[in-house]
Design a protein that fits this description.
It contains 20 helices and ten strands. The chain has 627 residues and is of the alpha+beta class. The chain has a five-stranded antiparallel β-sheet with strand order 2-1-5-4-3.
């Protein structure tokens, strides 16, 4: 980004040679101004030295001002002495010129808005006019008039009138063009065609001015404004300031020396001729500088617009999101080229479709909402929908939309938004959910048998007890234990024991197949079956089915009374809301204890579950079971 530089921050420092050059230039231009003043009857028609010095001062750091002002002061004094002024008068008049430049430069530099780039906008031109053309020349003219009045008795008003306009014109004509040159503008930085054009325009301006002011037969003053306007169009602000300075110097010089349509006129006195040519040059400045500034700013604005258009086009062409605009009747009025990369449609194809053509049929209801007509007060929304690719496949997208309203009426005028491909995100979410379910399944499953583990059993029994109480439906629980399993392990080993448990688990699972049934490994060789909506009779039927299936499994048991693996089953049924999960489990476990005591390979249930539920200790429950 180009940073704003203050006046004086970028110019090269002035060395001893530069200081001497400043003294020489100011001395010569002061002498030239004095000669013009003498020729005009002691009227300062144009004072170039102060305009040059102000530009030089503004382009240098503050610490070098004293050096430059001192050199210019010496040059002014030498010029005054050369033309015959007394030493005291030369010193005082030169001091007035230095004061004028110092005052104008200080006011401009102290303004925080002053910068080198600011020469191309109206506020800075106005500040230059206020400080350089009005304030400083007015103050200096009053100071000089007072000094001359005290020294030689000159009329204060008369001195003010002949001093102030000449100084103001010198600053107006020369300060802008030198500032532009000193801040780094050089013709060598332009293209060859541009350099040739600028030089040609300046030569044309000089030629026309010479034609106008070297003869008086033809009144051709009207030719100068058009050529300056042409210069403004062709050469910009720098060319215009140079052309105006060239026109002003030629016009004033030739007029003062009695040439041109004004200088040769016998209708005006010399004072009136000077005033007329000053007014003419001032009108050229007032016309040309604002016009040139406006044109330069216009070109700059057009260039910025072009750059912004290029930047926005680049962003549209390379963004990963589809940007679209849709009218109130669902027609696509604009869509970015990303539609080709994401959906495979050409821009022209997409713009011939309506918004509904892209969506999955299941997502169409989301377009039939008050938001799509702008009547629900919601101005923005973000939804996930499936968009159809050209090849017929659908991909998940994130659709972000914002209502467009007519500026004049505020009525709904369409929707603008973006479409982002989130198919990879959706796939990642699906993988994550699948992994979570697998992890949840592992967390709730017994590693050996694959049945529900104790954790899932506890959760399920609590939920089913509450559901049973709410729905007033019975809930049965079977506690199952492998008979003489320690003897089985001791005889055949733990690997055989694990295989036996897996076969028992599979057999029980094949018996309890309703969607709500849960078969769990309760611990060791003990299993549990939760049977929702099942009465005591239903629990007994399930127990008999399991006993038969285990026997049919025919798994040999070397240390069992039956020679095969068998199980014992305890049954408990909750038919009201008086039982807690622990009480129901205690009932089933007590029934299992009774089944084992009564010979194993059988089921048992307790007649009075309510009585068991009211007991407090396992010993008391077992006493009930043994009655």
């Amino acid at each position: 980004m180009r940073q704003k530089t203050h006046l004086g921050e970028t110019a090269a420092p002035v060395g001893p040679g530069g200081t001497l050059l400043v003294c020489l230039v100011i001395g010569l231009t002061s002498w030239f101004g004095i000669e013009l003043t003498k020729e005009a009857g002691r009227i300062a028609s144009f004072w170039p030295a102060n305009g040059i010095l102000l530009a030089i001062i503004l382009c240098q750091p503050l610490r070098r001002w004293a050096q430059l002002l001192g050199a210019a002061y010496i040059g002014n004094v030498i010029a005054d002495l050369y033309v015959g002024d007394s030493v005291s008068l030369a010193l005082m008049l030169s001091a007035c010129n230095s004061f004028e430049v110092l005052l104008a430069a200080t006011c401009i530099r102290r303004d925080p808005r002053a910068s080198q780039e600011d020469l191309l906008n109206f506020p800075t031109l106005i500040r230059l006019g206020v400080y350089g053309l009005l304030l400083a020349p007015t103050a200096t003219a009053l100071l000089a008039a007072t000094i001359l009045h005290l020294q030689v008795g000159a009329d204060i008003a008369g001195v003010f009138v002949v001093w102030m306009p000449g100084d103001a014109l010198g600053i107006a004509l020369l300060t802008p063009v030198i500032l532009r040159y000193r801040r780094g503008y050089k013709l060598s930085s332009d293209s060859t065609a541009r350099r040739v054009l600028t030089i040609s325009m300046l030569l044309l301006v000089a030629g026309i001015n010479l034609i106008v002011f070297t003869q008086s037969y033809y009144q051709l003053l009207f030719l100068i404004p058009p050529i300056l306007m042409l210069t403004a169009f062709q050469s910009g602000f720098y060319g215009t300031t140079a052309a105006v300075a060239l026109s002003g110097i030629i016009a004033i010089t030739f007029t003062v020396y009695g040439f041109g349509p004004i200088g040769t006129s016998e209708l005006y006195s010399i004072r009136e001729k000077v005033a007329l040519i000053q007014l003419f040059v001032a009108s050229l400045i007032a016309m040309s500088y604002p016009a040139a500034t406006t044109l330069v700013l216009r070109h700059r604005l057009l260039r910025e617009i072009e750059q912004n258009e290029h930047r926005y086009k680049f962003l549209l062409d390379n963004t990963n999101d589809i940007i679209f605009e849709r009218s109130a009747d669902q027609r696509i009025t604009f869509i970015s080229p990303a539609v080709t990369r994401i959906l495979g449609w050409d821009v022209s194809e997409a713009e011939s479709m309506i918004g509904r053509d892209f969506l999955h049929p299941a997502d169409l209801p989301q377009l039939d909402t008050p938001f799509e007509t702008g009547v629900d007060g919601i101005e923005r929304r973000r939804i996930d929908v499936r968009y159809r690719r050209k090849d017929g496949h659908y991909i998940w997208t994130e659709l972000s939309s914002q209502i467009i309203r007519a500026p004049e009426t505020g009525e709904f005028d369409g929707v603008i938004g973006t479409v982002r491909d989130i198919s990879a995100q959706k796939a990642a979410e699906a993988d994550r959910d699948r992994a979570f379910r697998e992890l949840q399944k592992l967390a709730d499953a017994d590693a050996l048998t694959g049945l529900a583990n104790r954790r899932q059993f506890n959760t399920t029994i609590e939920n089913e007890i509450r559901r049973s109480a709410r729905s007033n439906q019975p809930l049965s629980l079977l506690m199952i234990d492998a008979d003489h399993f320690k003897n089985y392990n001791d005889a055949l080993g733990h690997l055989a024991g694990d295989n036996c448990l897996r076969q028992i688990a599979t057999t029980i699972s094949n018996c309890a197949t309703r969607p709500g049934d849960l078969v769990a490994r309760y611990g060791g060789e003990e299993f549990a079956v939760i049977l929702p909506d099942t009465t005591g009779e239903g629990g007994i039927a399930m127990a008999e089915r399991i006993l038969l299936a285990i026997k049919e499994m025919g798994l040999p048991h070397p240390n069992s009374h039956s020679a095969f693996v068998t199980v014992s089953i305890g049954i408990a049924t909750a038919e009201d809301d008086a039982q807690t999960p622990d009480q129901l489990i205690q009932c089933a476990d007590s029934a299992l204890y009774l089944a084992k005591k009564n010979g194993r390979d059988r089921w048992e249930t307790l007649d009075d579950v309510g009585e068991v539920a009211a007991t407090e200790t396992e010993a008391e429950i077992k006493k009930i079971a043994l009655r």
